[in-house]
Write a structure and sequence with these properties.
This protein is an alpha/beta fold. The protein has four helices and five strands. The chain has a five-stranded mixed beta sheet with strand order 1-3-2-4-5, sandwiched between helices.
Length: 107
C-alpha cells in the first residue's frame, strides 16, 4: 500500500475526524491475507479518486485504540468518515467493482 499514507491513533482526530473532505480509512494488519488482497485495489481507487476522498491506512496491531473505539473486530475493515462520523463501513476483502459500488456516494 505504498500510495496510501498511514495514520496513527495520535493523528486520527486531526487527519480523519476534522478533515474537510471524506476520509477512507483501511484498517489492516501485516498478517492479514485479505488485507494484502485489497491493498492494491485501494491504491488504484486512490489514484483515480484521491481528489474527492482522502485515503489512509491504519495498522490495527500498532494502533489498537482507534479500531477498538470504532468496534473494528474483523479486518480488512474500510470505514469512510465524513464530518467526524462513520458514514460507510465495509468489512472484508471485495473486488474493485464491488468497492466502487459501495463507495459510489463518495467518489
Amino acid at each position: 500500500m505504498a500510495n496510501i499514507a498511514a495514520v496513527t491513533d495520535a493523528e486520527f482526530e486531526a487527519q480523519v475526524l476534522k478533515s474537510d473532505k471524506p476520509v477512507l480509512v483501511d484498517f489492516w494488519a501485516e498478517w492479514c491475507g485479505p488485507c494484502r488482497q485489497v491493498a492494491p485495489i485501494l491504491d488504484e481507487i486512490n489514484s483515480e479518486h484521491g481528489d474527492k476522498v482522502t485515503f489512509l491506512k491504519m495498522n490495527v496491531d500498532e494502533n489498537p485504540v482507534t479500531p477498538s473505539s470504532y468496534r473494528v473486530t474483523g479486518i480488512p475493515t474500510i470505514n469512510v468518515y465524513s464530518g467526524g462520523e462513520v458514514v460507510k463501513s465495509i468489512v472484508g476483502a471485495k473486488p474493485k467493482a464491488a468497492l466502487l459500488k459501495e463507495l459510489a456516494d463518495f467518489i
